[in-house]
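Researcher: Please predict.
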Amino acid sequence: MCDSLDNIDVEVGGKAVVQAGTILDDLIAALDFDAFQSIDLSTEFENQGVTKDDVDAVHIVHLTLRIESPADGSFDFLTSASFFAATDGQPRVLIAKLDEVPRGARELSMDVVEGVDLTPYVVAPRMTITSEARVSGRPDEETTITADVLLDVDVNVPGC
């Protein structure tokens, strides 16, 4: 009975802008989502009536990227991408990746790395999510990408 009571879903989202390119541009090596540079889930936990001390385990459920604009944009400039969690005192850990981006895709569901417990990252004062990307150039137009991360947080509920 407690299995569903002691888990909460926490969503984290961000946006990144990839500038239009010319043949003289350097290739991008990361997708920088501002909201992922300093993640503190204390407020989300407080809204659920729990604290970071109540967290037993945290696992990523999904990480999705979507082209927000332009309307006809795609991820054709991206060959592959990997996402990592990091915090002070912990090693950087791979959390999701996509080894081959399909041509024409406007939305990407990253392959989540199974078994990675993000508890020490989430309970730290600040967690970051960074990326590494292989690209085949830059898009023809400035491209805005949104990222959505869903975390399953297992919390300690008295009596469960």
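Model: The two ends are 8 Å apart (CA to CA).
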